[in-house]
Structures are given as C-alpha cells and as structure tokens.
Amino acid sequence: VKFVESGGGLVRPGESLRLSCAAPGFAFSEAIISWYRQVPGQARQWVATIIPGGDTRYTDSVKGRFTLYRDVATNAAVYLQMDNLKPEDTGVYYCQEYDSTTWGEGTQVTVSL
Question: Given its phi and psi angles, is residue 87 left (phi above 0), alpha (psi -120 to 50 degrees) or beta?
C-alpha cells in the first residue's frame, strides 16, 4: 500500500506539527505502521512505530516530544504529533507498513529560526 503523508511545513524551534499518514480503505488498526525521517545524503532513519492495540515505540531523540496515534474514529489514518520541534528534526518524513517495500512521497519538515 502506498500511503500519503501530509502535514509538514516550516516551523521555528519549539513549535509543533502534526503529520498524517493516510490510505483510502486501509485498515490502520490491524497494521504495524512506522514513521521514518530522511535527510539529504543520509539513509532513512526510524522515528516511531505503532502496533495493533496501540502500543508505540520511539527513537530516543524524540521520546517525550513526539506522539504516534491512530484516528480511532475513522481508522483511516495515523498521526505523528510533533511537539517542541528541534532543528535536528528536519527532514522528509515517510510512513510505511511493516514489511512493505513501498514508499510514499513523504512530507517535508523544516525546523529553523
């Protein structure tokens, strides 16, 4: 499944963004979904994962600042709430289902003064 990522933008340090990961008809509640970040010239880095049941895992650099959750009402998306953003959070963010080789277009997050 090719997801559509959205919600990125240009923000200042300390501000927030909420990224969305959507795919029409996809049952997000039954899937393991991860977010990744890619900076030019570097490999994609894992950021966070949500599993069926709602448990989440985060890379150390975003713990306490990012929250990954499903749209329980519609089961049509997962969201990555990004608070207290830092310049090192800058990159293109992608979501992907576990064990998939398909990537979406991503959404650009830029944190800068």
Answer: alpha
Helix, strand, coil percentages in the chain from 3-state DSSP, rounded to 5: 10, 45, 50
Under DSSP, the state recorded for 101 is -
Contact 12, 84 (CB under 8 A): no
Residue pLDDT, tens place only, 20-78: 999 988 989 899 999 999 999 999 999 999 999 899 999 999 999 999 999 988 888 99
The CA distance from 48 to 35, in Å, is 5
CA torsion sign for 86, 53, 35, 110 is negative
Tokens 């959070």 belong to residue: 89
Closest listed residue to residue 1, CA positions, set 37, 20, 25: 25
- Which run of H or E residues covers position 96? strand 91-97
